[in-house]
Amino acid sequence: MFSKSFRVKSNTVIKGSDRRKLKADIATAFPSLSVEDLSELVPNKEELNVVKIYAHKGDAVTLYVLHKTPVLFELEKCLYPTVYTLWRYPHVLPTFTTWPPVLQKLAGGADLMLPGVVVPLSGIPEVKKGDCCAVKVVSNRAPMAVGTATMSSAEMRSLGMKGRGVSVLHTYMDSLWAFGDKSGPPSIPDVDTEGVEATYEEEEEEDDDEATEGGEEEPCPNRVPDAPCPGIQELSLADREEGEHGKEEGEDPEDLRSPQEQMDALLLQCFLQALKSKVKKSELPLLTSSFLRIHMFSCCPSGKQLDIKKSSYKKLSKFLQCMQQQHSLVRVKELSKGVESIVEVDWKNPELRSFRTPKDPGIEEASVEVGRAEGEKPYHPPEITTLYSVSSRLEPLFQDAKKRKGTVLQPAEVRAIITDYVKRNELVDENNKNYVIINPILCDCLLEKSEYQEVEALKWDDLFSRTLYKMQHCHQLVFPGQPPIVKKGHIEPIDISVASRGSNKKVTMIKNLEVYGLDPMAVSVALQHRVQASSALNPVPGSKDRVLVQIQGNQVQQVCKLLLDKYQIPCKYIQGLDNKVQKPGRKK
Q1: What is the band of 144 on the pLDDT scale with cuts at 50, 70, 90?
Q2: Facing residues of 147 across strands?
Q3: What is the pLDDT of residues 80-104, one digit of tens each?
Q4: How far apart, in whole angstroms, are the C-alpha atoms of residue 477 and residue 489?
Q5: Going by C-beta distance under 8 Å and a sequence separation of 6 or more, which residues neighbour residue 451?
Q6: What's the pLDDT band for 215 if we cut at 50, 70, 90?
Q7: What are residue 331's DSSP bridge partners?
Q8: CB-hemisphere CA count at 13 Å for 254?
Q9: Which residues contact 341 (CB under 8 A, 6 or more apart)?
Q10: I need a labelling partner for 512 at 20 to 30 A (CA). Which of 74, 98, 370, 519 fits?
Q11: Distance between CA 5 and CA 55 in Å, rounded?
């Protein structure tokens, strides 16, 4: 149902009465949940959204979203838990077990066939036709799919475990999963299928031995033996090991290679290291973009930057195609239109098994601190304070306090000076102490000409607000370890805008980074690393010492995350947050 993207109709916050009804419906549908579980699933005081969507086939579905993660969905007045909920409460539904390769088919929109069901020693779960059930893989109790039983357990056994068993509605890695935080499944040991997994692995090893004894290995159907792979000679493990030994002896073999060859070698190193130390079987199928962003970038050595566009491959898809055809390390498949996933990894590949992970203490920080030069101090946002300067019109009001025109004051100081002036001149109304009588100086400083004959007294709050309004606004920036900087006017917010270029192409532009002490080059590199899109620095029209960062595509959401999370810039100093892409996009 969710193998393709869906269209959002509405997104609203749930009402109190609907929240109570939902909790009651969940308790009825899933009686194994305790009262504490229900309170966690539908909390009383936290925001819970009701999102109404249309699936790609036109089905009307209601999602219940907590903390931006769908926890339940309702179809034809029946409630179903999402995989996110089942990972927290795996005991909620009767669960069928299958092999990991079958999960790839389910993610592509197929139903679970009974020949693909693994029957543990305790037997298959007892279900009736139409019952909600889950699907998990061998050795992990975390469910990977949700659906309904097409027949009862008795009918399944009577048919000899043949035919369609579960009509799958939602799976890990589908569009409903992608609507949440896109976290991976946890690893929950499954005692019932440990023996089954061992038997399956032994059979696999025997099959591999038979294939080896038979002589030639059966070629991969996607393999092209004679097709040359760009830079494959430079990417051999032997060359890389020789380079490592050369470094130990004081030589630098990278000087003998072009920058493109060096990037090819770094790309292969990060690829092999990610497969060997990061990716788990339970994560498959894995989006190729997630594999690059989460796993490969984190394996990049400190002091280096992984950039596919500087390699001979230019694109991730071309590199993975080479790894599939020439090395037979992975199998990549397009599970949905335009979206490729790694569906299989050859863990027994000699090249992968012989790869040695390089020791680099800063390897985990490389992806996070990209764009930060060696030895550069970490960025700390400035402390911003709003100040007020005495204007020429208000100078008589501040004369007794010996504050002349241009004196910069804190709001609290202005309030104290005005209060002292009022009390010293006995201007507090005796009948109502909430009001201040207007004398000639206050009249000239704070009132408009049309109010001269009408206004005789002002409330205290009105008096203070009028005084601040008539003063000149200033702001003070305090960077760590530097003296305060005071400037006139309001502080300029970081401006994020999206512009069109050519036919349906967009670029995101960020201005005023220098105001907050941010290096536009560092921000540009960090964004380029995050979104894998080209960026550039362009001069701001009408300004000599400022530049704007320009990056391809509508990247407002990623820019906001970078500024808010990494650089800790307060949201009120960022302008243009409403330009981000709506999720999901409407069909054209």
Answers
A1: very high
A2: 133, 168
A3: 999 999 999 989 999 999 988 888 7
A4: 12
A5: none
A6: very low
A7: 344
A8: 11
A9: 107, 173, 285, 286, 287, 288, 332, 333, 334, 335
A10: 370
A11: 7
